[in-house]
Amino acid sequence: MKHIIYLLGIACACLTSACSDDEIPASAVDAEAVDTPEAWHDKTRTQPYPKLSNELYLNPPPLIVPESMKTGEKLQFALSQDEGFPEASTQLSEADEWCMFNPHRELEAGTWYWRYRNVSANGTEEAWSEPIAFEVKPETPVFVTPDFAAFRANISQAGLDVHPRLYCYLNGDLAEARQRVESHSEYRGLVSRANSAMNVDYSTYLNQVTEDGMEEMADYVEYLHQAYLLTQDQTYASKLAEILSLLCGHGFTDSELFVSNFGSTAIAYSLLVPYDVLYSRLSGSLIQQAQDLLMRIARHYFASYCGSQENNIFDNHFWQKNMRILFQIALCLWDKTGYAEEASYMMEYYYELWTARAPASGFNRDGAWVNGSGYLSANLYTLYYMAMLLSHVGQSDFLQHPWYQNAGQALVYNFPPSSKNTGFGDMSERWDVSGRQYAAFADFLARETGDGYAGWYANECSTDDDPDNDVSDDVLFRIYRICRNSTYDTSFPEDAPKMKWYEDIGEVVMHSDLEHTADNLTLSFRSSTFGSGSHTLADQNSFNLLYGGKEVYYHSGYYTAFSDAHNLMSYRHTRAHNTILVNGIGQAFSTEAYGMMLRANGGTHIAYALGDASQAYGGISNDPMWIQNFADAGIEQTPEYGFGETPLTKYRRQTLMLYPDIVLIYDELEASEPVRWDWLLHSPVQFGIDGDTFTTRAETGVAVARMFSDAAFEVSQTDQFVVSPGEGYANQWHLTAAFANSSACRILTVVQIKDSEGEILPVERNGSRITCGDWTIDVNLDPSSAERLQVTSGSVPAVYSYGSDNVQTGSGVYARQYRNSSVLYDEIDGQYQAVEQTDQSPVSSRRG
């Protein structure tokens, strides 16, 4: 279903008094329903991509074959606008071991065809697959990267035929940076870190090889590395040489070398840095030992990653760090005797993989992070490093990818300065403010792209009272900042909207005063086609509310571990989020348990979003990883624990912000048989419950929620978790409004957030009409008749209408074009206008 929007100015003919305000216009029709497939994204790909049923994310798209369809040693691809694949107009790939092909050129708008064939180890070519059609639309964003042959040809020009290579993109800046490094504001921090690394006995890390120990060693190595490159102090070089000799002489067993994938790449990086930076002064035997050990690691992981990573929705460890270090190994060994051909082949694979699936799964242009802002920090350095390196060597700007172009703005909206983040994904609860790594990444984006959001964010964080936010204290980006001594605009963008819809990941964020955190009300809402699993949570159609940067209503629990009992039952589970349970059962941990953000829009006075989580409650996870995690925790995926099938058939939720301080939640719930609906709300402080009204008094203000429904409900609260997180964690409060024994239910919740209790406005109901201050809400809460929600203001001409009636606005009557649509009449882009929306079909990386 296309996104249907009608923008109608004040003088538009459709705003005419000839239509009555309660008449359904004869021209109104039912909009095409959005598909509800088994999944929009596979954890492991099962269908070739792309097909006609896929809307493209980028032009050109990668061509990807599921690993299960690769039956030979290699795959070969053909691409043409003619399904007969004539030789003269067909792009034919080499036969390679991986399951993807990047065209590396803009494709003309129209229908294209591709096919693939398996090739055996001896070169025998099997029959071509049937042609697979896909469509390139003129509006598809274009992002083209050089092919690997061009990338490879630039290596010498990029300074990669000599060592050191790891920071080759800074080679042109290093000489000048060394001249002023001692006067740089970060010099003291640079040498302090390096001097701490000088005093470490690194042999102790090898007494018992652990992931934590190897990662700590790698951190120290990087401190020495940056300090040596900038100061040329030979004591740092000597320490690096000592570490290299220690590692090469250890004689790693397989169990030590592959203790974990993070452990392996930490060992590799601790080897790679001294090997690269000291290459010209090392003995031949030490060089050989280092190369042998690096290649041992590279071969092990290439064998397991090649073919699988292009088909995995997002392997966190791989993209956070492992891919970068494996690429660096290839970068350092591409021209070494005995390794050149193999290392170059690995480099080609990782280059093509980045082009196909980076920077954020390959199916995300939003600039926001599918796994949530809390887990973005683990990815920031690789996101910076790979973009800089590939841009330098490829002589093409990899930061032009839409994700990077939107990343600065996404930081501002999802993790505002002096505020908690919007509350989705693992570890989102851990930090009260974003921290220096986020500010450092914004600083990098501002320097390289000139993005105004990134510039404001970096400056605002650094001038925050919290020293943890200071960019100058960040270590990972330090050498970049010292070398690239540039400035940027730090003013807040004048055209910043109050609402952002992240269509690819399925989240909406609304802010009342984004520039001033102390006065800002933040409403975040998630209904994602990526479902749950990995570092995302079972939280479809959930919302979080912040005021003054602090939690008002927020998801509950603590990230004590990835999959311990508390995580599974009281953090990841749906019961920990501000959404619903059906007969006590939540959403499965899988990409099949998805939501869809179908509509969203906003103006000066009203913003709204509509999510559909009807497919999220359909069973249990069949993912072997989760099955094992449940078994290890002693938990079963049964109704007793809150998992299993439900008779849910419909769960549509709308969230609205009536600026500056009123929020509406409108729920439409249906099931094939009577069920108990548990409406959930979580707070760091206790609720005061007075019938249908719930009050919390927190550090930054007072929140009062009043619930309306034609169905009876009972309200309870507890400060206990189903599974305790253990000692040292504060209790949180969990409210449940239980609607018993009904097959359909509608609920409207009106929330006010004020600085003091005396400012709370009376909320009154008269039939279907509810008033709150200047706002009037006309709502149908009877599930046996048509849906209706209309919001009007007595002080401004803004109107929101959900339903099928015509809409009375300040400029006349808007004749609805579609039944059950959303119409917003508000000041948008500087003028009052009406915008009508029907459900928008999400973009899919799967589709049958």
From TrEMBL:
Among Pfam families, the record links this protein to: DUF4962, Hepar_II_III_C
Checking Gene3D superfamilies in the record gives: 2.70.98.70, Chondroitin AC/alginate lyase, Immunoglobulins
Q: Main site of residence?
A: other
Residue ranges of every copy of the Heparinase II/III-like C-terminal domain listed in the record: 497-695
Stretches assigned to the Heparinase II N-terminal domain? 41-482
Q: Signal sequence span per UniProt? A: none
| Compartment annotation | Cell envelope
Domain of life according to the entry = Bacteria
Protein name, please? Answer: DUF4962 domain-containing protein
Origin species: Bacteroides gallinaceum
What lineage is this protein's organism placed in? Bacteria, Pseudomonadati, Bacteroidota, Bacteroidia, Bacteroidales
